[in-house]
Structure formats: structure tokens, C-alpha cells
Amino acid sequence: MRLLVTGGAGFIGANFIRFVLREYPDWHVTNLDKLTYAGNLENLREVEDNPRYTFVRGDIADREAVAGLFAGGGFDAVVNFAAESHVDRSILDAGPFIETNVRGTQVLLEAARRYGVRVFLQVSTDEVYGSLGPDDPPFTEEHPVKPNSPYSASKAAADLLCRAYHETYGLPVVVNRCSNNYGPYQFPEKLIPLMIANVLENKPLPVYGDGLNVRDWIHVEDHCRGIAAALRRGRPGAVYNFGGRAERTNLDVVRTILRILDRPESLIRFVADRPGHDRRYAMDIARAERELDWRPRWTFEDGLEATVRWYVDNAEWVQRVRDGAYREYYRRMYEERTTLSG
Asked: Is 59 a catalytic residue?
């Protein structure tokens, strides 16, 4: 398989690329990434010289450049990770989210249609469903889309474009909606890596509101296996939920990190809640289990402990991200890799 991965220098995308190159020796991966602040080529250092891996710098919203890449790529499948993804940033400025998450997805869909891609897999989020009450059943794939933040609204719009391209043009699209990922190489603005990094630096741990917002957590490796299963066995036009069956409050997650690192809960600082903060997410993953023969393997306890240990053992990586030094690695890579321009 010749696979185009967009946004592959980000957290989930980089983990997926490493997973594919390890598990599928007959797959070739082209990684198209704009390298915004969250794109880090250091995440892929171990595979950068792999003959089955190609990096191309470019913007998925650049129509001419994307068409040129598809014309020469001969891609069998596309996995679209490329997205602005941080809710707090979307509240401050929704514009980049519309440009990348909506317009960029449409550009990719059109190129995939024009060049006969066999599978287009859209990586989405549980946030498109909105918020659950404490006693509501988990989201199924039939749950109405009711996003509550500019970020989740942009992802919902992208999902609907995928549906439209399948229904109108017959493009074989599969949509994957996943719960909160955690694991190695996550940019330290997200909850778990931020808390770990702050603990290691003896800094306060900021927790929104009362800390009782609930998320369903999945280890990124389990998500990567799910994406690969959806690529190989997913029904065109279908949506698949992925989750870890691990609902935890944010406060529980922070306290567990403190226990693992043997640090006091006095480091916790409750801060003003963010606008439109969804109270609870939970995923019904029965369809993925039934149709894709997939299920999560990591328990949250084992996965979180392994994640904490990874950040402890890779403190230099964390520091290079937090102080911006990782961008120097970009500069060298720009000189050694093809740059895509329209």
C-alpha cells in the first residue's frame, strides 16, 4: 500500500507512522505536514532514513500543491490527521481551525476523488458529539453531531464533508471518531504531558473548574491499531468510534500522575473554567469491536504509568519542545527534505 499521511509530525500521526512502518513491511508512507507549532520532526527521527518513508512539507489547504503531490504519488489510501486541535486556541481564534480543518479536508477529499484513492480515512474526535450528562449512555455512531467549541465545530464540518463526498461521488470514506489520546510524543499543552512536565519542574498543576469533567482515555497505540484496522476492513461511508473504556475525571488523572511520581496534591491549582467546557465524553466502541475485530489492549493504569515513565526518561525531548529548540531540527530537515509549494 502507498499511504499518504497528513499531519504525520504531530502526536498521533507520528505514532501512527512508526506503527505502520513497524507492523506493515510492504507499506510505504508519505508524510505531508505543514509543520505548525505542534508538528515536530524529532518525533520521527528514528524512521527518517527508512526507505519506505518520505517527508514532504506542505499545507493541506494549498489546492495546487496537494493536486501535484497526488498526481505523482500514486496513493492507495489517505489518513488525514492534519488539524488544528487545541480547544483553548480555537476559543482565542477560530480562523486557523476553519482553514485547516474544513477547507483543508475539502481540498484533500477533492484530490482523493480526482486521483482514485481507494480509502480516505478521516481522523475525527468524540468532541463532535457535544457533551453527555453524568448518567447518559456513551456516544454511539448514531448520536447527533452537536459540537460546542470552534474546534469541535470545525471537525464536525469536516466529517460532514466526508459524508457528502461519499454520498455524492461514491468516494470510499471512513470516519474515525476517537476519545482522548495519551502516550509518548504528545505536545505538552495537553492535560497529561502538561501535568507531568509541571510536576517534574515542581510547578503548579492548573486544573480547570472543579476538575470533575470526565473524559474517556485511550492509549495512542490502541488508536493506531484501530486506524489500521479501519483502513483494511472499514465499510465505505461508515463512522467508527474508538475509546479506551476508561472514563476518568481530570482531577483523577492529575492525582494519579502525582501518585506515580510521589508528589503532593498541594501542587494542584484550580483555575477559572474555560468557556463551553464539555462536562463528559464517553464512547460506545461496539461497532469497531464487531466490524473491525479491534479492542483496546492497554488499561488506563498501565498506560498512564508507561506514559509518565516515557516523559521522565525523555526529559530532554520535553525541554526542547517547551523552550522551542525543536524548531532548529526543522531547519536542518528543510534543507534535506523536499518542500512542497504550490
From this structure: no
From 53, 151, 185, 240, active-site residue: 151
* Predicted local confidence at residue 342, as pLDDT: 38
Q: What is the CATH number of the domain that holds 95?
A: 3.40.50.720
Active site residue 126: yes
Buried b (16+ CB within 10 A) or exposed e, 78-98: bbbbbbbbbbebbeeebeebb
- Domain containing 15 equals 2-182+220-243+278-298+324-336
Average of per-residue pLDDT across 174-201: 94
Number of domains in the chain: 1
113 is a domain residue? yes
- Is the pLDDT reported for residue 277 higher than 70? yes
Residue 261 lies in a domain: no
Q: Say which DSSP state 339 is in.
A: B
d(CA 57, CA 340): 5
Is 221 an annotated catalytic residue?
no
91-110 confidence digits (pLDDT tens): 999 999 999 999 999 999 99
206 belongs to a structural domain? no
212 belongs to a structural domain: no
Per the residue annotation, which of 33, 42, 110, 126 is the catalytic one? Answer: 126
Q: Which of 59, 84, 127, 159 is catalytic?
A: 127
